[in-house]
Design goal:
Layout lengths: L1 E2 L3 E5 L4 H11 L7 E4 L5 E4 L8 E5 L5 H16 L4 E6 L19 H11 L4 E5 L15 E5 L2 H10 L5 E5 L5 H11 L3 E3 L2 E5 L2 E4 L10 E9 L3 H12 L4 E9 L5 H7 L5 E4 L11 E4 L2 H12 L7 E2 L1
Parallel strand pairs: 2-5, 5-6, 6-7, 7-8, 9-10, 9-13, 13-14, 14-15, 15-16
Antiparallel strand pairs: 1-17, 3-4, 11-12
Helix pairs in contact: 1-8
Length: about 325
């Protein structure tokens, strides 16, 4: 499809490669932001062309403080220069696991507060990819259109492309099991969930996995791989339950710290995931598929609602 009229597509610095692919999918030229960094650390941004009266699309993960702030700057810059609409695609939402607080903990639910900052910058539309929790979608007063983009079709296509003969999907906890069950139904394969308990901020314990994985390739599925702790534990329990092999699949491949070596040290040599997290590319260990075509489809559908935006399919 092609969207050709009254549209400018930009990105924060971290998500520029993905945004270029999205632009190619919808048939528009990607517009590179003008950036400079001053000696005192302050950053300069300018749009490369006049955005007044245009529909501005901003693609950007908020995986760190700098990228989050850049998204806010781009949204507010679009408002300042009178863009006709501001449409934001966030492939990966930072702090998305911090959407709840414990009673009397005085914790700051940054998943909510940071998303609220994005909404208060006054975009017209914000779409998120495979959120950890949909609670963040409601962190505004109803004046902003939001969309949760599920990548399950891409995940199904990817698993089918592997041509595996006998496999089962495994959720590392019951919280994600409904989503894994949905994937399993689309793939017509068995599935199960591990028993997991969290006992500290980054520490979990997985007690067991059912024998449905016995003799099969177990694909442990999650929305995100951060340190890999619970996923590796789940993989070990799958092997204990008789799995012939274990693979790992997740949309967001954060892989913080020494996570890659942690997987390798525990016999996991294949991790499948998307390019939603900046800097993730296919290599000997990672098998990466792109979310760009899906984001392009979402943008095509959304932007066709604007009467002055031409959409050619």
């Amino acid at each position: 499809m092609e969207i050709q009229q009254n549209l400018i597509l930009v990105a924060n610095e971290a998500s520029t490669p993905l945004a270029r692919d999205v632009a190619a999918c919808i048939g528009v030229e990607f517009s590179e932001m003008i950036r400079e960094r001053f000696a005192d650390g302050e950053r300069y941004h300018a749009f490369p062309c006049d955005v007044s009266g245009k529909h501005l699309v901003i693609v950007g993960a908020t995986h760190n403080d700098s990228s989050h702030q850049e998204i806010l700057d781009l949204i507010q810059g679009g408002r300042y220069w009178n863009a006709a609409s501001i449409n934001v695609i966030i492939p990966f939402l930072g702090y998305s696991t911090m959407e709840q607080t414990k009673p009397s903990s005085q914790e700051i639910p940054k998943g909510i507060t940071r998303t609220r900052q994005i909404f208060r910058a006054r975009p017209n539309f914000v779409a998120f990819v495979d959120l950890h929790s949909e609670a963040v979608l409601h962190a505004h007063a109803g004046e902003i259109r939001t969309k949760h983009i599920w990548t399950e079709e891409l995940m199904v296509e990817k698993i089918k492309s592997l041509n595996l003969q006998d496999y089962a999907l495994v959720s590392p906890d019951y919280g994600f099991s409904k989503h894994v069950a949905r994937l399993a139904s689309l793939l017509n394969c068995p599935h199960t969930a591990a028993d997991k308990d969290r006992y500290d901020t980054d520490k979990t314990i997985v007690s067991q996995v059912s024998s449905v994985v016995n003799g099969r390739i177990a694909i442990v599925c999650d929305d995100m791989i951060r340190t890999g702790g619970s996923i590796v534990q789940t993989a070990i329990r799958c092997l204990d339950a008789g799995a012939a092999e274990v693979m790992v699949m997740a949309t967001h491949l954060v892989l913080a710290g020494d996570a890659r070596n942690y997987f390798l040290d525990n016999g996991i040599h294949k991790i499948i995931g998307s390019d939603s997290y900046p800097g993730v590319v296919t290599d000997k260990m990672l098998d990466v598929y792109s979310v760009a075509p899906l984001l392009g489809d979402v943008l095509s559908t959304h932007l066709s609602l604007w009467p002055d935006t031409a959409v050619n399919r």
